[in-house]
Design brief:
Shape of chain A: extended
Radius of gyration of chain A: 32 Å
CATH class of the largest domain in chain B: Alpha Beta
Radius of gyration of chain B: 30 Å
Largest sheet of chain B: 5 strands, parallel
Structural class of chain A: alpha/beta
Protein name (chain A): Orc1-like AAA ATPase domain-containing protein
CATH superfamily of the largest domain in chain A: P-loop containing nucleotide triphosphate hydrolases
Strand content of chain B: 5-15%
Oligomer: heterodimer
Helix content of chain A: 40-55%
Keywords (chain A): ATP-binding, DNA replication, Nucleotide-binding, Nucleus
Main location (chain A): nucleus
Number of domains of chain B: 4
Organism (chain A): Psophocarpus tetragonolobus
CATH architecture of the largest domain in chain B: 3-Layer(aba) Sandwich
Largest sheet of chain A: 5 strands, parallel
CATH architecture of the largest domain in chain A: 3-Layer(aba) Sandwich
Strand order of the largest sheet of chain B: 2-3-4-1-5
Pfam family, one (chain A): ORC5_lid
Chain lengths: 570, 498
């Protein structure tokens, strides 16, 4: 009984607060290594009423009530549940809060933090066996289980122990006539982020096992809850299983989102008038609360700018609303396209996006920034190598000869001889397809050949002007640029600019591919003052508006920086 | 307080009944599987002979539960002459771990010391020796092999040594295999099959009448001292009313048409029992309907309903590409198509890319191959995971893009047709197609804007027969009658997905 009354730190809270509480509970564990009791399987924190939960999750009323009904009254057995719905719809936090309300023991394990089967199993068993990793046991697990059969055996043992423990406890409570603090005989296993299991190594065996776990254990006191962001029909299995009971969390409606966004605002009236203006257009793009709140935050600051106290305490009237509306209107459209500024894409793509954003508002770009500045450092030869890799990926191999034959530069004669209308059309569709299919692969030899051409072309024109200043330097530079190409290539590969494919079974050698975007390539080329567009197959053929603009910039740059190569306008 | 208590007790009783296989599957009639199996196993226990039986039936038909009942009965009747070994194909499908598990359970049973380090050979020799010893002691070893078909993968060494050991007169063992593959015995190798007894017990899903009996059996409260008399009688009367209601019968039939196994029915019952209103304490018609709708989900449609309008537009563009039968469908191609839409919004490319990624997370679309991991997202080819009918409904449900309604109206996809063809017992289509079993032909003829009459004339089938077939099979789009599909002037299209 004493255990019940000693103050406990919440062992588990919602996902957001988990990080903050983790450190403090660790300290407590080190200071006070008291053995864990069955009470530690409860969700920590003081009891919370159902009404509180419902009011703290707007728009989730029916889901909360449905889960409560399915979990049932104390000591009633349960078939497995499958809770699903898109990300950030409140699945995990509602389940955890409900167990806090019900005050029943759960074993929670997320398949994201337990990223393979043995870690998942060990985490479940650690919690069930009330085992805490610490220095005295060398941070070891309670049980080691590699095989599925071991896991099921251990799990059955541990569960029987826990359930007997719970039964004893509740009998004691009944004999003492205590009506409060009942935790019942049931134990619930919660698997969060269940969709990730599909990508694990042995998913074909572990998925049917987990779905059939209820039938396998044959313990009515065990409740299973699967939380997944994808629907049950995405869990294909050739084994088949009795489907768990589905509980669906739909995405929030516009009204719900409004309520959620309004919750933590200081000036609710002002924010609400802001949402009237802004929310609708953003809601058309995405319905995820996280994305929306991140996107709306800077816009709201903009919205409050004209107000004296940044909108802390003003109640808006019609007049002011109009004024603020006219103030914010031009920003909405531009911020719509910046809605996903924080992107989780790879570094090269982030670069691309930055570049694209600059492309988006060219007027500002010209004024504020020097065009084509790279925000990372790269050696000259690596830049040339990257450009040649880009060309090799983009251009068809058959055109190399015509592009690079006599000292570089495009073959103007070829363009003058007009092919027939049909052939041109066919060519155009072909090249568009190439562009859509993405970069192609190329062997090392081709890359080196192009690289050599580029380096020789790039250094030639400087003969005229820079010969006097550092004639010696050119020769050295030539040798310098060509040296260590393989080293440069491997470092580019490591930086994910160039990908090394598997070796081709027919040709035997490795094939490479670069996935950098055209914008990045142009940027690199500009920093070298290298006329990249001349060597691009697409721009040679169709002079789209985009191509023209690039040529114009190049022409402009050519005038500014002296003659570099042969400008395409010649 | 007392009132509340017996209501909660009623819910608890129903729920524990549903979760208790003993209550559901106990059936003492002579021709039930339970009696047959019990007879077979108990006779081999009493007569000290070897036996092997396969229990076959679809998942959720109660094979395991019936077996469990039989074993519990036998353990009570002959507590000293049975030792039980349980294996599961999911856990012990490889021979090494299977023998290890057998040795472990044998050691547990006979209070022997189990060595974890024992090799495969040691374990298999131990098993054979134990079988012999048990035979001498007149003790029957019952092997229960759950997911039997998984043991038939690989070299089947376990099955061979088990069944081979049973050929000698000294041993006394029963092998019970459980599988949801009806052809499980065909998976066995020749040397194993010849040693198998070929006894099979088939577990069929119950008929509609049996299901209704089961419903009554589960849902009625006992009229004894455990509940107040009035409450129990009233409760049972309401249940009786609901079950005899015509509407309920129709819904139940529809539900059981999908899967008529016992477990499937129990899922529904569980939902209904937990939806029971604790205020009144009775199961009502509304509770039943609510639980039907909550258990029969249409995940793809729900997912489509969640899509923002930008995401729907991307899906729509993908569908257009599919209709145009373009070979390549990746993000760039979709963007090109997106630009051709009437009244395009000026979202930038990365916003669209993010929406595209959302669609991938929602699993409405997926990459066609896992190759080309190093290719960036916009170049990797993708495919739709929804049918055009679903997309059509999704677009219709979304208020924000009404202008695509007309474009999308009345397209028939190949999957719709194949399911149609299956359900019509292939009568309509087998006769309507010039080359049977090829729905392509039929649809391509419709592509040439043939009207229904022309189709019938061309393929020489009776209009009545066609209409009848159409009426008997439910279309995925039941609101639109089949004939209006065909007579519709817009061009139906063939989707290349299969």
């Amino acid at each position: 009984m004493d255990d019940d009354k000693t103050p406990r730190l919440p062992r588990r809270m919602t996902r957001s607060s988990a990080s903050s509480s983790a450190s403090s509970s660790n300290i407590v564990a080190a200071v006070n290594p008291k053995p864990l009791t069955i009470n530690d399987l409860l969700v920590g924190g003081h009891l919370i009423s159902l009404d509180d939960i419902i009011s703290s999750f707007p728009g989730r009323n029916s889901q909360i009530l449905e889960i409560v009904r399915l979990l049932g009254p104390l000591n009633s057995p349960m078939l497995p549940l499958f809770v699903y719905g898109g990300s950030s719809t409140g699945k995990t936090s509602i389940i955890l809060q409900l167990f806090r309300h019900l005050n029943r023991p759960i074993v929670y394990s997320s398949c994201r933090t337990c990223y393979n089967q043995s870690i998942l199993f060990e985490s479940i068993l650690n919690q069930l066996l009330l085992h805490r990793k610490n220095a005295s046991n060398g941070y070891s697990n309670a049980k080691r289980c590699e095989r599925l059969s071991d896991f099921v055996n251990f799990l059955r043992e541990a569960l029987t122990k826990v359930i007997n423990n719970l039964k004893e406890k509740s009998e004691k409570l009944i004999s003492n006539k205590v009506t409060q603090g009942k935790i019942g005989n049931m134990i619930y296993l919660v698997f969060d982020n269940f969709q990730l299991v599909r990508e694990w190594d042995k998913s074909s065996t572990i998925l049917p096992l987990l779905f059939n776990l209820y039938d396998l254990l044959k313990m009515p006191e065990v409740g299973l809850i699967f939380i997944s962001s994808t629907s049950p029909d995405t869990f294909y299995s050739n084994m088949g299983y009795v489907e768990p009971i589905p509980v669906y969390f739909p995405d929030y409606t516009e009204g719900d989102i409004r309520q959620i966004l309004l919750r933590n605002q200081v000036n609710k009236k002002l924010y609400s008038s802001f949402l009237d203006v802004a929310l609708k257009s953003f809601y058309g793009i995405t319905k995820q609360v996280g994305d929306l709140s991140a996107a709306l935050k800077p816009l709201y600051e903009k919205y409050c700018e004209p107000l004296s106290d940044k909108g802390k305490g003003v109640a808006p009237n019609e007049n002011m609303k109009q004024r603020l509306l006219s103030h914010i209107k031009p920003y909405i459209a531009s911020s719509l396209n910046e809605i996903f500024k924080v992107s989780s894409l790879s570094s090269t793509e982030v670069d691309t996006h930055k570049e694209e954003k600059r492309k988006g508002n060219p007027r500002r770009l010209e004024k504020s920034e020097e065009p084509g500045s790279l925000d990372f450092h790269m050696s000259t030869s690596a830049k040339y190598l990257l450009i040649s890799a880009f060309l090799a990926s983009r251009n068809p191999a058959t055109l190399d000869a015509s592009l690079f034959d006599s000292k570089g530069g495009c073959d103007n004669r070829k363009r003058k001889r007009k092919p027939s209308e049909k052939a041109q059309e066919r060519k155009e569709t072909l090249e568009q397809e190439i562009l859509m299919k993405g970069p192609g692969t190329f062997p090392l030899e081709r890359l080196l050949a192009i690289f050599q051409c580029l380096v020789s072309v790039a250094e030639e024109p400087s003969d005229d002007e820079e010969q006097i200043s550092d004639g010696l330097g050119v020769e050295v530079g030539n040798g310098g640029l060509m040296s260590d190409v393989h080293l440069q290539l491997s470092s580019l590969c490591n930086a994910n600019f160039i990908f090394k494919g598997r070796s081709c079974p027919i040709e035997g050698s490795n094939r490479y591919r670069t996935t950098i975007s055209e914008d990045l390539a142009l940027k690199v080329a500009r920093s070298l003052k290298f006329p990249l567009s001349k060597y691009l197959y697409r721009i040679l053929q169709e002079e789209t508006a985009h191509g023209l603009s690039i040529q114009k910039t190049l022409k402009f740059m050519g005038l500014k920086h002296g003659r570099i190569g042969k400008s395409p306008v010649e | 307080m007392e009132q509340e208590n017996h209501k909660i007790k009623a819910v608890n009783l129903l729920r524990s009944r549903i979760c208790d296989p003993k209550f559901i599957f106990k059936n003492d009639s002579a021709d039930s599987n339970y009696s047959k199996l019990k007879f077979m196993v108990s006779s081999s226990v009493t007569e000290a002979c070897n036996n092997s039986v396969l229990l076959l039936g679809p998942r959720g038909s109660g094979k395991n539960e019936v077996l469990e009942l039989v074993i519990q009965d036998l353990l009570q009747e002959y507590p000293d002459s049975i030792s039980l070994i349980r294996l599961n194909g999911l856990l012990h499908s490889d021979d090494i771990s299977a023998f290890k598990e057998i040795a472990r359970q044998l050691c547990m049973e006979h209070q022997l010391l189990f060595s974890k380090a024992a090799s495969f050979d040691d374990n298999s020799q131990f098993m054979v020796a134990m079988l012999k010893e048990c035979g001498l002691a007149h003790k029957t070893v019952i092997f229960v092999l759950d997911e039997f078909d998984l043991f038939a993968q690989g070299k089947q060494r376990l099955l061979y040594s088990l069944l081979d050991a049973m050929q000698s007169i000294t041993s006394q063992a029963v092998v019970l295999g459980i599988s949801c593959r009806l052809d499980a015995d065909q998976l066995l190798e020749k040397r194993v099959r010849s040693r198998f007894s070929h006894r099979k017990l088939l577990f069929l899903p119950p008929s509609i009448e049996d299901s209704q009996k089961l419903l009554m059996h589960v849902l009625t409260l006992p009229i004894d001292s455990s509940f107040p008399y009035d409450y129990a009688v009233e409760f049972n009367r309401k249940i009786q009313n609901i079950i005899e209601d015509k509407r309920f019968k129709a819904t139940l039939n529809k539900y059981l048409n999908v899967d008529s196994s016992v477990k499937h029915l129990l899922r529904f019952l569980f939902c209904a029992a937990s939806h029971m209103d604790l205020q009144t304490g009775f199961l009502s018609q509304e509770n039943i309907e609510l639980s039907f709708s909550s258990i029969q989900r249409q995940p793809k449609l729900e997912c489509l309903r969640n899509c923002s309008s930008l995401e729907l537009k991307i899906l729509f563009c993908m569908k257009r590409l599919e209709v145009k039968e373009q070979s390549l469908c990746n993000f760039n191609a979709i963007m090109k198509e997106y630009k051709t839409l009437p009244q395009p919004d000026d979202y930038s490319k990365n916003v669209c890319l993010r929406a595209f990624e959302h669609l991938i997370h929602r699993e409405l679309i997926c990459f066609t191959d896992n190759r080309g991991q190093n290719l960036s997202v916009e170049f990797r080819p993708v495919k739709l995971l929804i049918s055009s009918a679903e997309l059509h409904q999704g677009l219709r449900a979304n208020n924000s893009c009404p202008r695509y309604r007309k474009v999308q109206a009345c397209r028939i996809s190949l999957p719709t047709f194949t399911s149609l063809a299956d359900k019509c017992h292939q009568r309509l289509f087998a006769s309507s197609l010039t080359t049977p079993s090829n729905p392509h032909n039929f649809i391509s003829s419709m592509n040439k804007r043939l009207r229904f009459q022309d189709v019938i004339d061309n393929h020489k089938i009776q209009r009545e027969e066609a209409n009848k077939c159409v009426r008997t099979c439910p279309l995925p789009l039941p609101t639109i009658p089949f004939t209006s599909y065909i007579a519709h002037p817009s061009i139906p299209t063939v989707s290349s997905r299969s």
